[in-house]
Amino acid sequence: MALDPALLKPILDAGETPATTLLTSGVHVFVDADGSEVERPIWVIATDRRCWVAAADTEHAWHEAWGSPTEVELLKGWTRDGLRVGTWHLPLRAGSRPAAATLVERFASVGDGGERVVGSVPLGKPRGDRARGALGIPDWVAPELPAEADERWLFGFETAATHPFNHRNGTVVREPLLLLLSDQRLVLAARAEWGELFVEPADSFAWTSRRTGRDTLQLNRRSLPGPLISGDELATLDRLYASKTRWETAAAVALERGDPKRALLIWDEALYLGRPGAFLADVAQLLLATDQASSAVSALAAHLVAHPDTELDHGQAHWRAHNQPLRKAANRASLDWSRVGAALRDRLAALDDATPPAGLAWPPSGISEVWACALTQAGSDKAADAWRACSASWREASRNEEANAALKLAVSLDASGRDHWQLAEWAWTDGNPEGASAHWTEALGVDPLIQDWIALPPAAVRQVVALATGESRSRLYALLLALVPEDRDARDAWAHLLEHELDDPKRAAEVLETGAELDDARGSEDLRFPRWIDIGRLYALADDQEQAREALHQAIRGDFLHPEAYRQALDCPGVDLPPALATWWTHLWTVLTPEVDTAHSPLVTQFDEDELDALHPGGVGWLDNVRTRVDTKDPPERTTLIRGLERMSAEEWPREHAVLTRVCAALDLAVPETRIYRGDAAWGLSAWPVSPPVLLIGVEHLRDGPRQLDDEALAIAMAIELVHLKCAHPLLAFDSSLVGTSTSVYAAFGEYAGTAENVVDLLTLVPGVDQIAKLQTVLRLSRKVFTARSTLDKATSVATPVIGWFGTGSEDDSGIGREGLKGAALQFRLHADRVGLLLVGDLRAAIAAILRASTTSLEQVKTFEEDGAVALLGRASLSPDEGLRISALLEFAAQWPLNGHSKR
Fold first, then answer.
1. According to the 3-state scheme, what is the secondary structure of 749-803?
2. Which 3-state string (H, E, C) describes 665-687?
3. Which of 151, 326, 408, 767 has a Cα at 20 to 30 A from 257?
């Protein structure tokens, strides 16, 4: 059998020639750097000088040699033979006794006593020791494991892995691998029963925690299973290994594991050896747990002096988490502080005595109080905040005297105006107004801009403001406006205080105005006008007429469907309303109610194209945008439209012709040819962009009957249709054929005007039950989106369907669908309605014209004439089309003239 060259290499290198070889049944295990094992057989090789035992493969080699023939001996047994070579007693394979005898005989004849090659390099002498508080360190480590003289072993445990030792009988013995941590290093070690050691320093350490199965360690290139008894050994080792102060961490681990005696041993030895570490914080924690609070303050103060960057919240939280377990552990261990080590005892004796805080019982009883006392003794700039925290906690626990004393301690350390405010508030709450005044005076002298006072009751605030003078008072007012509370009752109380007791109505108005804007931003569904009427009254009282009128406008705009808003605005004391505005609001009020109508007059007598564009609900340029996105329909042939229809001549219809002429003059439009149609459904008006244009009027509007229009209503109806021509509104007819009878022509026109037969009832989408409030909500949502030029994907909740129905689809759309066309048609109608209203100046006539020309709402005319627009709009039977259209016109009217046309 050819031998592996690796076996022969040391023999040949020694200048010897192999004479006899023997393969035994003994094995030798090699261990790779990653911990993997390779097992190889042991050979005996006799040369002319020595007898060798060796094992090898391509990666590994091991050998020993003896030169004296007396050290090679055949061992005969009953069941198995062996061969002794020096200190090795190797078992022989079955049937190899003759070969072994021959090897022994030949070596005895040629061996010349060559030099021995045996053993391994010693590891060194053990000089380190086991720390007295060490955990998991076996007894043999300190006396046998090599270490530095000042090194101390702190922590260790068995892994689930083993290390192989090659026994001299040719077998392999496996012993547990231990992880051993000193204050200087981490090693992997194992020990055979005959004293042989394996030691491998760990250059790196990591571990992986697993939910199932054993945790895994990574050391150097090894991957090892974790501890046999899994607990927190790995986490503890990780914590200790990463710590820069292992003694301190080891003591902390001992405390957390409920072993305070071991922590005392570690502290004492660490102090004796001069090891670095912030021990005193943990010592103080244990002192407090054993009811030595005064000593705990001293120890913690010394720690804080040495470590001023201590994280206070974390430290106190750690104490709270472990205080009770430490108490129980100390009681179980019968901890005796008089018997602690000399080094720790000397360190504690050298601490400064704790100083009792003024006004508080001593010694302190709680963790927060101990920390506050220690911070104070250490001269920390965080001491005042610590006493503030104690104060707040005690106040919450109704320990009022202690809370006051703690906050006064904070004031003595850090003269903060906020503390004086708090003391004043507590004094006021406890029925001590004199004490409150004293603290408020102090606070104003320190910092008049403390914000806590905003939550005080009005009576207390009155006292605060009364104490403030000069610049302090002015700054307090400014702060008041910046911190208007969200609670409406609190705002009302502030306003009452400012108006009646501090004689400052303008400040009161500003408080209420800021609050009203907050409510509007939150989307409050409450009526807005009472707040704004009161704001107007206060501004008038402060002789600010411009702001007063603006507040009344806000009241009208916010609740344009509520008659009471108009009545209170008209009656608001002290507000100087321009006569034209007072007349207009009075007119709107009478339209909403059963009151007798008042005088009215045109609001605008002439329009140009820019002014017409500005009146569109979608804003300037909206119509141009829509015009590029819709597929317009060509109108029917002119001959089809007028076939068989009577011409409305000036001679036969002088009243109607005069109204038409007046309207066309205002719009700078040539008087179009006008035709009257009769027959079924002979009502409604429609203007058609044919050449030349033609205006169709149903005869029922011109003769006695329920659909007859007076001069003002007829002027508005004509203006509405002529605006479509003037502004070139796209023709949006949905029917493919427009032929034959006047009925079919008008039906198509009705689609164009936006009167759809199957309209989704938007009002059902709006929360609440009040129809008037719903209508106002719909119009507000739509106006907001028009103003912001938003798209559908930016609207949410109720706004989305409302906005979509009003025709404000995404500008990225290439076209508008059928529902969008209805929305666009309604927009054109709202545009025209506004122009008609401004031209005539009679809202009552405008609503009458809408109802009398409606396909669905004629029966509502009586309700409107007898009970007013509020009763009309409140009816569920009113078409959503007509309800939204009339509401939109009322909203527009309520905004005039402040946000209206340039010609007023």
1. HHHHHCCCCCCCCHHHHCCCCCHHHHHHHHHHHHHHHHHHCCCHHHCCCCHHHHH
2. HHCCCCCCEEEEECCCCCCCEEE
3. 151
Whether residue 400 contacts residue 382, with contact meaning beta carbons closer than 8 Å, is answered with no
pTM assigned to the model: 0.52
Query: What residues pair up with 158 in beta bridges, in sequence order?
Result: 178
Structure tokens at 731: 């023709």
DSSP structural state of residue 227: B
- The CA distance from 824 to 630, in Å, is 10
- Rounded to an integer, the average pLDDT of 505-510 is 88
pLDDT classification of 477: cutoffs 50, 70, 90: low
Dihedral, 786, 789, 794, 798 alpha carbons, nearest 10: 0
Q: Phi and psi for 26 in degrees, rounded to 5?
A: -75, 155
Between CA 840 and CA 784 the distance in angstroms is 28
β-bridge mates for residue 39, sequence order? 29
Residue type at 209 in one-letter notation: S
Which residue, chain included where needed, has tokens 């409406």?
A: 488
Question: SS3 string of 851-893?
Answer: HHCCCCCHHHHHHHHHHCHHHHHCCCCCCHHHHHHHHHHHHHH
Burial class (CB within 10 angstroms; exposed 0-12, middle 13-18, buried 19+) of 325: middle
Angstrom distance (rounded) from CA 123 to CA 152 = 18
d(CA 508, CA 528) in angstroms, rounded, equals: 17
**Tokens coding 66:** 């003896």
Q: Are 600 and 587 in contact (CB under 8 A)?
A: yes
* DSSP symbols for 546-609: HHHHHHHHHHHHHTTT-HHHHHHHHH-TT----HHHHHHHHHHHHHHSSSPP-----S-S---H
317 vs 500: CA distance, rounded Å: 50
Q: Is 503 exposed, middle or buried (0-12, 13-18, 19+ CB in 10 A)?
A: exposed
Rounded to 5 degrees, what angle do the CA atoms 797, 802, 806 make? Answer: 150
Q: For residue 748, how many C-alpha atoms fall within 13 Å in the half-sphere facing its CB?
A: 22
Question: What is the average per-residue pLDDT within 671-695?
Answer: 89
Helix (H/G/I), strand (E/B), else coil: 181: strand
Q: What is the DSSP string of 278-328?
A: -HHHHHHHHHHHTT-HHHHHHHHHHHHHH-TT--HHHHHHHHHHHHHHHHH
Whether residue 497 has pLDDT greater than 70: yes
Instruction: Give the separation between CA 210 and CA 226, rounded to whole angstroms.
Output: 10
Spatial strand order in the sheet of 205-208:
205-208, 216-219, 222-225
Mapped onto helix, strand or coil, the DSSP state of residue 467 is helix
SS3 217: strand
Ramachandran quadrant class, 90 (left: phi over 0; alpha: psi -120 to 50; beta: rest): beta
- Compute the radius of gyration of the chain from its Cα atoms: 51
Burial of residue 242 (CB within 10 Å: 0-12, 13-18, 19+) is exposed
Count CA atoms within 13 Å of residue 328 on its CB side: 6
Give residue-wise pLDDT tens across range 723-776. 988 888 877 544 333 333 333 333 333 333 332 332 234 455 455 556 677 677
Closest CA to 893 of 582, 588, 586: 588
Distance between CA atoms of 299 and 280, rounded to whole angstroms?
6
Rounded-to-integer distance, Cα 883 and Cα 888, Å:
8
Q: How many angstroms separate the CA atoms of 783 and 808, rounded?
A: 11
Round to whole Å and give the CA distance between 821 and 733: 9
Residue 53, both tokens: 């035992």
Which residues are registered as beta bridge partners of 217? 207, 224
Alpha-carbon distance of 775 to 879, in angstroms, equals 12
One-letter amino acid for residue 395 of the chain: R
C-alpha–C-alpha distance, residues 630 and 621, integer Å: 15
Residue with tokens 């396909």: 855
